[in-house]
Amino acid sequence: MIARPPLLEARGLSKTFPGVKALDGVDFTVRAGEIHALMGENGAGKSTLIKAITGVHPPDAGALELAGEPLSPSSPLDAEHAGIATVYQEVNLIPDLSVAENIMLGRQPKRAGFLRWREIRGQADAALARLGLEIDASQAVSRFPMAVQQLVAIARALHTDARVLILDEPTSSLDDAEVAGLFEVMRSLRDEGLGIVFVTHFLDQVYAVSDRITVLRNGGLVGEYPTADLPRIELVARMLGKQVDEVDAVGDTMRLGAGDAAIGETLLEARGIARSGLGPIDLDLHRGEVLGLAGLLGSGRTETARLLFGADRSTAGTLRIKGSLTPLSSPAEAIAAGLGFCSEDRKGEGIVPTLSVQENMLLAMQARQGALRKIPASKQRELAEHYITALGIKTPSPDTPIENLSGGNQQKVLLARWLCMQPEIIILDEPTRGIDVGAKVEIEKLVASLRADGMAVVFISSELDEVARACSRVAVMRDQKKVGELTGDEIDERSIMQLVARLSKVEAGRPSAPNSTLERRATDA
Ligand SMILES: Nc1ncnc2c1ncn2[C@@H]1O[C@H](COP(=O)(O)OP(=O)(O)OP(=O)(O)O)[C@@H](O)[C@H]1O
Ligand SMILES: [Mg+2]
Fold first, then answer.
1. Which residue of 91, 133, 194, 492 pairs with 189 in a disulfide if CB–CB is 3.0 to 4.6 A?
2. Would the CB of 295 count as within 6 Å of ligand 1?
3. Domains and CATH numbers, the chain
4. Of the residues 26, 86, 217, 404, which should be mutated to test ligand 1's pocket, given the most ligand atoms within 8 Å of the CB?
5. Which position has the higher pLDDT, 20 or 438?
């Protein structure tokens, strides 16, 4: 790699929040024309470092330079003017405004005080075109899927003459094709000479796109490495603060879903459930089973889960829970029948930012008990402490406002919210999104232990290796239909992938004979 001059240099950055030293004398250098991955466990300080650079949380100590000039932005706008474009972990777009307005917000061209709409549209379209995104920018941003909204946020950040582009977990809701598209954009911006900072928990992506890696741990700098010189196992070891052989023991090959946890009676039986375009779908779920729902983004996984939970109403078919017909028409009924649903949409359906970790955790349980039967304070504390330990939630105390936790730790609190209800059936929709490698394995183990305790788990994940490890049965969804099921030894990443990717018979242009037992089983079902 060519030695390039530093573009952005941070020296000795420190930042303390009440009870947490979030950054401890961190050095960080971004060069022009490189993609620099910033790695570390949940709570390691990645987002805080970015916020210290961009004036969201000015550091307590340390100094910044941009292209050799001292820099001390007092607000994100300040940093933007200096040439640092940022998309933060929690994308903040205004749902009811149009795409164009979101992109141009705060910098609309005006003449004599009047907004110049044609110019706004023109500039917004240009920003979208730079990302290869062809959408109608006059539509409200909320009408587009999360993936598109994410790209709009990037288009917004890029609009300025940015020299540094910072992306904090930009790919967590994008599918493979969209990730590939984003990488193309990142590479071409790099070739234009931008310095790009990329935060992610997907190791594959780090190796696919980055030139250099900086690792943080507990707010401190572990080191900076050329990506080509840092084998994956060593990266993981440095992130976790472990030796390579300790990490090796965790192993990728572990099949937690396998083994002979007893499969018990049928807990849930769905027949022909459907809703506008989705289904009809048949599903069975037994005690002691982890049923994976695999498929691409938009294949109908979350929609199916929402039908089971009564969050959307099924327009056809029947649902039986423990043998009795259940008209699941609201989540409250579903919860009463023993279901829990941990949503993928942490921000929209999940956390209440200003409430504490403990309050967020016990919200659903308290709601079920009714406002009049308050859970005793000592019991609340006991539960909160139990799950903080069990899930390794990094928080100074159960009373800390949840908005002060790192993204991944907020996700764990949500999971705890459902676990403490002790449902018999729990639906986990992307439970490991935004969660670091170490905690992922912990969550997979937890799922295995729930299964051993006789619960039934529906496990939705875009990461096929994880589905393959965690599940005892996998239903594959495609185009809003269930297209196949895999059981036991049939489950591996490749077989799931094949089912996910296979063209429909119409697309393939031939009435193909069923070419595997799986497909036959799917048609029989
Ligand atoms: N506004 C805040 N107030 C108090 N504590 C905070 C605040 N923001 C972050 N922290 C704490 O600082 C530490 C570092 O958090 P940070 O968000 O930087 O982690 P991260 O590396 O981005 O993690 P993740 O991968 O989960 O996003 C955490 O312990 C977090 O709880
Ligand atoms: Mg973060």
1. 194
2. no
3. 33-250 (3.40.50.300), 266-338+423-524 (3.40.50.300), 354-413 (no CATH)
4. 404
5. 20
